Amino acid sequence: MPRNIAEFRIIGQVGGVDPKDKVTYVNVASNYNRQVDGEWQEDTHWNRVTCFGKCAEYAQKAGKGDMVHVTGRIKQTSYEREGATIYGTDLVADTFSVLNRSGANEA
């Protein structure tokens, strides 16, 4: 049977780490270059990654500005609010690695 895949890979810099009871959220910035009117422009895309278990433990050791590599699966979600269905997309990490610490986080 064929395997269906919905996964992501992000290499970027940590903007913040938000540990909760059983989950850690990490904001990771990745840059995208595009041409506008013949000029190159760099846009920053912020990605909110959800980490559980060991992945959350690794994520909590990352600091603002650290370069990280994150892979995982894309999960579509929905819930009801005031009679309307709200749709979202979660990035659930399977792996989380710090590639390079920022100067502010080196001890």
TrEMBL record:
One of its GO terms (molecular function) is single-stranded DNA binding. The keyword DNA-binding applies. The keyword Zinc does not apply. Keywords: DNA-binding, Plasmid. PROSITE patterns: SSB (PS50935). It holds the Pfam family SSB. This is Single-stranded DNA-binding protein. It comes from Sphingobium yanoikuyae.
